[in-house]
Fold these 3 entries.
Entry 1:
Amino acid sequence: MFHKAGEIAAVSGLYVLAAQVGLLTGVERDMPLLIWPASGIAAAAVILLGNGGVVGVWLGAFLATLALYNGFLPLRTSVPAAAFVGIFASLQALLVVRLAARWIGPFPKEPRLSHLLRFSTVAAVSAAVGTTAGIATILAAGVPLAAPVAIAWLSAWAGNLLGIVLFTPFLLMLHRWFHSESIEHQLAPMIFGLGIGLALLIFLLLWKQENERIRVLFEGEAVTTGAEFQEMLDRHMHALDS
């Protein structure tokens, strides 16, 4: 019993920590998130721990969401919203496990690139379901989104997808390594997967930088145009007074 409680506490703690890391990748306007590592940790926890992982994911997502909305929403709203976010985070992880079991089977001893591509498809489908449920919960709670709904959904979906594709296989590989299982045949597809994930992350970071540059230029031009208009208006007012 104490062992199971320790597993749940460890998973929930890792989820909260990963959620804080994910929030640090947030972008002010068009892209609220770049990557959500907690989704990958959640899927790996459910694969390795089963029901204990599900409970740990729910608790971690509940606590992370409650902390995020603390002081912003009343408790009568934030507690149910956090509970539903926890449920949907757990369901997303369960969906990853179920779809992976059906389309891939047990985590292969010698993963190939075809396994990675199938797992990426599993992650994309699961992330779409989890993101849709999460966005719906946020809107129902009355939380204003940092971007239009479509952009917020796409951002959250991409963050969940990257989190699952990058972190879940990596954590499973670490688990095998800690249990003295050979991982030499897993390195090539893992490096390939990390390369894809890092390429997407670099693309999103460059997109963020370009959006910020365009925003600064636009605001600067708007300020200049406003100042010129005010100056012209002052000249006309001065001419009328004369």
Entry 2:
Amino acid sequence: MNYCVYGLLLESNVELSGLQSCKAAGEKIDVTATMGDFPGEIERLFHHSMPQRYYAEPGYIEGDPPRLVVNTLADGQYYHFSYAVGVQFVCDKLATSVWGRWQDPLTLMDATLFLVGPILGFMLRLQGVTCLHASGVVIEGRALAITGPSGSGKSTLAAAFAAAGFPILSDDILPLQFEQGSPQALPGYSRLRLYPRSFKGITQLPDDLPALSPHWSKCYLDVGSAPYSFHHLSIPLHVVYFLDWKKSDAAVSQIMPVKPISAVPLLAANTYRNEVLDSDMRKKEFFFLSQLASKVTVRTIRMRDDLHGISNLVDVIRKDFKG
């Protein structure tokens, strides 16, 4: 099965839920994913090479084991991701191949959520692609990015745009590239991941949405199905909006300009998986973001203290974007 996601042509040995297949006659495969048991050559890596700690994500509570441990294998030729919930991935340093497996009671559906999220996100970074931790929305042939800390409402605001009839470009991971000097945003896939209570203030959405998996607390909105719209091609990036809750006592949300010199560190703090970048990756990212800040508009949205007015915020952003 072949899929187009994040600007990559992904080949998989199994069907991946949530992704739409695409034709790939004669096209070069960017990433090959093998889901299930690790093949012999991957198993041998664990027995014949000394793992080196690359990154560890702490547990939710002090003293808990890490939620994620990343080790390098074979003198840095492979990365091994081991999640405490029972999912493992190995990818090569060139970011062209990835292998995934899982433990009961988890299923392929659960492993796919990791694959199309942090695993492909990391592989994009290995390939030198800068990604914002952002949702992408299309307005009249140009894209806006909604970024901010985890849990700040990026996906919820994107869902409000979808409910208002605007095409969605991506959720959580927004890859960027320059084409002839113009910054372009690349499409992800057609599902918005949402917490069950986060979208209740968006009256145009159903009261209930399907769960991502029986083992995940989030649900999803499929913007690839009517009445919603998914934009599946790259598109010029025009504005980046940063959701800021520090000024949450505001009666209404306010949009504030950000100068280019201040935009670079703000963008750098909101790139995807920036905690796993090595020094060389960080240098390349800084150069890319410096160029980006000179080409796009960056705004801060000082959010009000709840999301009940989120549908009105869509109209405020739309007017700012077009103005």
Entry 3:
Amino acid sequence: MSRSAAMFCLRSGSIEEKFDYCPDTQIPSIPPGGAVVKICYAGACYTEDHMIGHHKNLTPGFEVAGIIHGVCPSVPNANLNIGDRVIVFPEEHHYTNTYYDYITVKDVNNLIVIPPEFPMEVAAMLPCGGLTAYNAVMRAKPIVEYMLQNRNCVNILIVGAGGLGLWTIKLAKALISGDCNRVHITVADTSIDKLLLAQDHGCYDVIHWNDADHEQYLIERTLDVCRGGVDLVIDYVSSPRTFSRTLQVLNREGVVIVGGNCQFEISICLNTLAQNQQSIVGLHSGTVNQLRQLVELLTAQKVTPPTYATYPITQASQVFKDLNECKILGRAVLQVSAVED
């Protein structure tokens, strides 16, 4: 592929810096055995590997969906064609501080073709947020099913009502609770607006964890809402205060799935953990096969996406500023380029 054609590029160093246009950027050549994808939509998000204290480094360009611009002719039986709509499972070299409208994909196995009717903006929410939530729910599913054998009701507490929390509500209701009234999904957050949105997404109840309230009151309030205590926690915050709180309300043999974006160190009494037979499970984003499964669920309309809003790429700086200040409810998706029919 010729590199003579210029492409769109925005770059920023951190959440405090504005995006600037990159001059003289060229469309990349097709890598051996790989492909080049024209990006149409990109999710505005971070990765846990790029969270350092309260300073958020941007990782644009890794949660994307677009159209195949070119495929290496040496790729055998890939069933990929120019013009196919695809989701890009993030490769390591995609973790940059830059938005491009063309990216290289070294391994075509990381391209997932989506049908024409699949909304491209929804596809762009899947490789990070949707996939992380799906991985969390699939981790939780066998645990909850086992608990239901011995308990009348299982209380699931989701800590964080942002994009990950909303995805988790949708997926947990579809894959775990279904029509079962014995599984109660409760959401905790510091934002009342986010909790109202979580209620709209169908959770059983919500808890306002106001930072100004006394810790013991928040614990008692949580136990009052989650009658009988909490059996399983999916924690997307994992600050020292919230994590300590979840352990205070966690039942015997309870499980905490940690997918938090906090880099603070947390002290845990292993003796108490052992005596209560409680478990802490780490969570990463997920696999490419899980991403394929998630696409199938959405294509079959067994799961619907959470609330989202789309913005032009030129508003990227403001979008990330609003995200950092918790002014955006649900997910934010940036339109990088037009979707060609």
